[in-house]
Design brief:
The chain is mainly α. The chain has six helices and no strands.
Length: 144
């Protein structure tokens, strides 16, 4: 299994897991208790099982090489979206809300998590291009 397949599989896995967690949170926020929430231990077991299925021959010590950058990417995109929503609430102008003064980390056009997720082919390449675009837009991230 090559690295690109692993990255693509991890992206899909994390999207599915995050999507499910957001769905559960939305249900909880709406006070709909028709579904049992998963506890942390069960979630951890589920994630480990999924990781073992898709990683195949990759050594456990190498997981961080693939997982940490993807988690960081997802998180900075989520934070950017939160900051954008706050800016929109304050100023009401989408173009101004993209400004550097409202964001700790800039996410350039076509470099957001949702852009990578929308790709159906060459997801690994889309990730690399997004990482590079974010690095170029944020000098403090050069070399990370």
């Amino acid at each position: 299994m090559n690295a690109q397949v692993v990255v693509e599989s991890l992206c899909l896995l994390f999207y599915c897991e995050i999507h499910e967690l957001l769905r559960v949170q939305a249900l909880q926020d709406r006070k709909e208790t028709t579904m049992t929430l998963i506890n942390l231990k069960d979630l951890e077991a589920h994630l480990w099982h999924a990781a073992h299925i898709i990683t195949g021959p990759i050594d456990a010590s190498d997981y961080k090489t693939y997982i940490f950058p993807i988690l960081f990417f997802k998180r900075i995109c989520d934070v950017y979206d939160e900051e954008f929503a706050d800016a929109m609430e304050s100023i009401g102008d989408a173009e101004l809300a993209k400004g550097k003064m409202f964001h700790r980390i800039q996410i350039p056009e076509n470099c957001h998590w949702r852009d990578v997720f929308a790709e159906t082919k060459d997801i690994g390449q889309a990730l690399k291009e997004s990482f590079r675009g974010i690095e170029l837009a944020n000098p403090k991230l050069h070399g990370i």
